[in-house]
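Sanity check record (used in CI):
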Amino acid sequence: MPMKRPLYYQLSEYDCGMVTLLNAISYLFSREAVPPDVIKAITTYSLDAYNTDGEVGKNGTSKAAMRFIADWLNRNGPIKGLPIYGNYYAGLHVRVKKDSPLIDAVQQGGAVILRLNYGGEHYVLATKADTQQDYLYLFDPYLDEALKDTKGIVFVDDAPFAYNRKVPFNFFEANDAHHAYALGPVEKREAIVYFNREQGSIAPVSFNDRQNVSKKDGSGW
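Expected output for Peptidase C39:
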């Protein structure tokens, strides 16, 4: 029987991007379906950003690396036997509200990687949306009990394979870019949506097509 795995948390203060990429793979595919080359590529190309002291990895994973990995997975995943594809979104396409492209993608079975604010730039995985109550369900790889004191955020302990909290839509759209989980100014927003080609019902869109959309919006990953 195909085995799914619980999603996991960061090992350090810096690996939210790498962990969220691996969690997207875990969410979409069984353990048996994942080739080692995919894991190797994610761990090799992430944690590439330097801090002000010139220390590699201590500024996490760059936007350029996240986009490169998405392109690598689109090109090489199917060749390696993993039926994955990723779509890049930017600017006005990155909204958390009813009928937005990202919410539609989640509802069609996609795993959405969002770059947002949580004490600095941070990556999380969105896997479910409730458009009746206006909640987005996330797996945040940063374990922080203090967040339980934030009004509106609900911690979830019984869905380890998919999410660990639900966050109101309005958190993501907050005007204050320093608000917890705020996506920031529209013109700077970016996200990548991953699908399992064998399960998702949205027709694949080429990565280059999404790149063209992002250029029109004046934003780049």
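The chain has six helices and seven strands. If this sentence no longer matches the regenerated tokens, the check is flagged for review.
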